[in-house]
Structures are given as structure tokens and as C-alpha cells.
Amino acid sequence: MTFTATTRRFLSIMLTALFLLTTVTSVHAQASMIGTSDVINQEQASVDRDALKSMLSDQAVQEKIASMGVSADQVEQRINSLTADELAYFNAQLDEAPAGAGGILGVIVLFLVIFIITDLLCATNVYKFVNCINR
């Protein structure tokens, strides 16, 4: 099978155009170094979030939150929406509280503060007396 000069020229132009098209439109992946402090901060946020969720599993806390008209699912959603700084702050508050001195009460107050903050940030609307700061 022999190709004529025009057929070869046409094929070479088409292949060159195809090559240029695929080269220009290809997506380039970019990798960069991740600092150790970034990884540690992400892991710490995960640990803090898990600690708050484990406090939520306490039966007395669940009963008290339910008596206030808030479901455990709402609390969990709010915990998931907290930033790493907010999580660190709440866990520091819990660590500073004296052991056994109103432990359950402290956890309940903590969740109430979480509710108020998320209401202020317009993430939820549980308390009617808390106005959204973004409106």
C-alpha cells in the first residue's frame, strides 16, 4: 500500500494538529510539599472533633440536649462545621475544667456555646434570639 505525496502530507498535518491539540489541552498536575505543622494541625482538629463527639455519646448529655429540643444529629453537624481553632478552644476549655466539677454541665454549656456560634455564623437557626451576623 503506497501513499501519494498529498496523502502523506495530509496525514502528517492531521497528526501534527492532533499532537498539538492533545498537548495544549492536557491538564498538568501540580504537587507541592506539605509542611509537618499543616499535617499536625489537621490531625489535631480530627482528634478534637472526635473528643467532642465522644462527649456527646454520654447518656446524660444526650438527655439534657434532647430536653432543650436539639437532636444529637444537629449537635454532630455543628461539631463537624467547627474550624480547627474553635475545636482547639472548646477542648482547651474542657481540659481546664476541674475533674468531676460539673462535668456533664460543662459539656452541655459547651454545646450551647457551639449552637450560639453556629447561629451567629448563619450555619443554623436554632435559637430565635440569636441574630445572624452576615445579614
Task: Give structural notes.
- The model has no long low-confidence stretch (mean pLDDT 75).
- Helix 2 crosses helix 5.
- Helices cover 68% and strands 0% of the residues.
- The chain is mostly helical and 135 residues long.
- It is built from six helices and no strands.
Please give a handful of descriptors for the protein shown.
135 residues; mainly alpha; 68% helix; elongated
Topology of this structure?
Layout: H1 5-25, H2 36-56, H3 59-67, H4 72-81, H5 84-96, H6 103-120
Helix pairs in contact: 2-4, 2-5, 3-6, 4-6
> How would a crystallographer describe the biggest sheet?
none
The separation of the N and C termini measures: 75 Å
Discrete helix count: 6
User: Which structural class matches the secondary elements?
Assistant: mainly alpha
- Helix fraction? 55-70%
Sketch the topology as an H/E string, one letter per element.
HHHHHH
How many β-strands, per DSSP?
Answer: 0
Mean pLDDT rating: 75
Overall form: elongated
Strand content: under 5%
Poorly predicted ranges (pLDDT <50, ≥5 residues)? Answer: none
Radius of gyration: 28 Å
How would you briefly describe this protein structure?
The chain has 135 residues and is an all-alpha fold. Helices cover 68% and strands 0% of the residues.
